[in-house]
Amino acid sequence: MSIATNLNKIKQALPDDVTLVAVSKTKPNTSILEAYEAGQRIFGENKIQEMAQKWEALPKDIQWHMIGHVQRNKVKYMSEFVSLIHGVDSFRLLKEINKQAKKHNRTISCLLQVHIADEETKFGLDESELKTITNSEEFKRLENIKIIGLMGMATFTNNKTQIRKEFKNLKDVFDVLKESLPHVSTLSMGMSGDYTVAIEEGSTMVRIGSSIFGARNY
Ligand SMILES: *Cc1c(COP(=O)(O)O)cnc(C)c1O
């Protein structure tokens, strides 16, 4: 099936208040343009240099989301253009994003990544680390970043009950965060294999790659 067909099928099934991030990592610019021609404007990448190359080559009205793990020394390569950083998992990283955003006179929107999976390998903050960051005075003084919500990844498993439990947990953390930061509105959860469950549990942003572009060859 074509990229446009896949994309339209997914978009039709998404509720109006759920934003679709088309995850184009490893995919060529021709594939991204196919999705672009079909109306898609938000694309997600997980490698900063790959995203920067695509940003340079492709239409400038594309909004680029960094969905992968971010190394502090690479923030500078995306600070001019990135539209949302999903995987912020430390205060040091947040300070670096703030510093680089300031150089470009921008405010960069960020999501704090929360660890919800039953796996050691997935990055993210636990609830107490999240609180420590958002309650700190230093955080309140960062003027060139804006936390607009949370991101999380469920365990890679076929067990739907477990996945649902993890998404519910993230939604609870999100609701608590809203009490101290009332403007937060974005809950990024759900990928090709689990986005319908994520939406049932309150996701407002899904990150879908293989169901749009086909399987990835690494
Ligand atoms: C690759 C990736 C996705 C998309 O995965 P698919 O299973 O292809 O939809 C979503 N989120 C993150 C963080 C990713 O790295």
The assigned structural class equals alpha/beta
Radius of gyration, rounded? Answer: 17 Å
Secondary structure: helix percent? 25-40%
- The CATH topology corresponds to TIM Barrel
Sequence stretches where pLDDT stays below 50 over 5 or more residues: none
Query: Strand sequence of the main sheet, in spatial order?
Result: 7-6-5-4-3-2-1-8
Report the portion of residues in β strands.
15-25%
Compressed to H and E, one letter per element, the order equals: HEHEHEEHEHHEHEHEH
Main β-sheet: number of strands, strand sense, barrel status?
8 strands, parallel
Summarize the structure.
The chain is an alpha/beta fold and 218 residues long. The chain is 40% helix and 17% strand. The chain has one domain (3-213): Alpha-Beta Barrel (TIM Barrel).
How would you describe this protein?
- By secondary structure, the protein is α/β, with parallel strands linked by helices.
- The chain has one domain (3-213): Alanine racemase (TIM Barrel, Alpha-Beta Barrel).
- The protein contains nine helices and eight strands.
- The protein has an eight-stranded parallel sheet with strand order 7-6-5-4-3-2-1-8.
- α3 (48-57) links the parallel β2 and β3 (63-66).
- The two termini are 21 Å apart.
- The structure holds pyridoxal-5'-phosphate.
Would you spell out the secondary-structure blueprint of this structure?
Blueprint: H1 3-13, E1 19-23, H2 29-37, E2 42-45, H3 48-57, E3 63-66, E4 84-88, H4 91-103, E5 108-113, H5 127-135, H6 137-140, E6 145-151, H7 160-180, E7 186-188, H8 195-200, E8 205-208, H9 210-213
Parallel strand pairs: 1-2, 1-8, 2-3, 3-4, 4-5, 5-6, 6-7
Bound molecules: pyridoxal-5'-phosphate.
